[in-house]
Design brief:
With 234 residues, the protein is of the alpha/beta class. The chain is built from 9 helices and 7 strands; from the N terminus they run αααβαβαβαβαβαββα. The chain has a 7-stranded mixed sheet, sandwiched between helices. The radius of gyration is 17 Å and the shape is globular.
Length: 234
C-alpha cells in the first residue's frame, strides 16, 4: 500500500536525485542488497533539513550499516558529532567497516546494544542533542520517547521515520493483519503522544513511509497519552 497516489510518487522518485560521493556509494550498495536504510525521499528530506539546521549534537536510533549517520555527518556544525545506536551484530560489523572506510570516525560514535538500555545510559550521563533521528523497531518508538524528549534541547527536533507504515497506520485495527496489530497500536500511541503533549509542536508528513517531525518548545515536558486507550478502542 502506497501513501501517495502512484503517479505522484513516481514523479517525485524520478526527480529525487541520488546522492553523490560517499553517501551515494553506500546508498546504492544498500538498495541493491535490500538493506533497510532510509528511503530516497526521506534521505533527501533529512539532508535538506540538516543543511538548514546545522546541528552540533545528533542522536540516531537505528544505525543499520551507517548510511544515514554518514549522510548526516556532512551537515553538522563545526565540531559536530553523531551518536548512533545499533543492536544487530551483522549491521554493527558492516557499520563499523563503513565508518572506518569512509573516514567518519571523528564524527560518528557507534553504540552497540539495545536502544532502551543505551538511551537510559545517555540520560544518566545528562547528554543533550539538537537533533534526534528515530529509525529503529517501530513498536518501541513509544518506549524510546520519554528519554528522547528529555535529552532533546529546547528548540531541537525529533524526526521519526516509518510512522505511517506504508498506510497501515490509517487503517482500522480490524483491517490490520493480526501479526501487526501490536505494532499498529503502539505506533498509534506514539503519534497520539506527539500530537497531544504540551510543549511539543508536531507535524506528520507523507514523505517516504511517513515522518513525524516535532520541535521541543520548553523544558520539563510530561508525555501525554491520557485518553489514548479509550480513543483507540472506539
Amino acid at each position: 500500500m502506497e501513501i501517495l497516489e502512484p503517479n505522484i510518487k513516481k514523479y517525485i522518485d524520478n526527480v529525487t536525485k541520488r546522492f553523490d560521493g560517499e553517501a551515494g556509494e553506500l546508498q546504492e550498495y544498500a538498495y541493491q542488497r535490500g538493506l533497510p536504510i532510509t528511503r530516497p525521499q526521506t534521505a533527501k528530506f533529512i539532508s535538506t533539513l540538516l543543511a538548514a539546521l546545522r546541528p552540533k549534537d545528533v542522536l540516531e536510533i537505528g544505525c543499520c550499516i551507517g548510511f544515514s549517520a554518514g549522510l548526516m555527518s556532512g551537515f553538522l556544525a563545526k565540531g559536530g558529532h553523531i551518536t548512533t545506536i545499533e543492536r544487530y551484530d551483522i549491521m554493527i560489523k558492516k557499520a563499523r567497516e563503513n565508518i572506518e572506510h569512509y573516514g567518519w570516525r571523528d564524527k560518528i560514535t557507534l553504540l552497540e546494544g539495545d536502544a532502551k538500555d543505551m538511551l537510559k545510559s545517555l540520560t544518566v550521563d545528562d547528554r543533550k542533542f539538537d537533533f534526534i533521528f528515530m529509525d529503529a523497531a517501530k513498536g518501541q518508538y513509544i518506549n524510546f520517547l520519554p528519554d528522547c524528549i528529555k535529552m532533546l534541547n529546547v528548540g531541537g527536533i525529533l524526526l521519526a521515520d516509518d510512522i505511517l507504515k506504508d498506510g497501515y497506520l490509517a487503517m482500522e485495527r480490524s483491517q490490520v493483519p493480526r501479526r501487526q496489530r501490536t505494532t499498529h497500536k503502539r505506533m498509534r500511541k506514539f503519534v497520539y503522544a506527539l500530537t497531544r503533549t504540551d510543549g511539543l509542536e508536531t507535524a506528520l508528513l507523507t514523505v517516504g513511509s511517513g515522518l513525524a517531525m516535532c520541535t521541543k518548545l520548553k523544558d520539563d515536558i510530561s508525555i501525554n497519552t491520557k485518553g489514548f486507550e479509550i480513543e483507540y478502542d472506539e
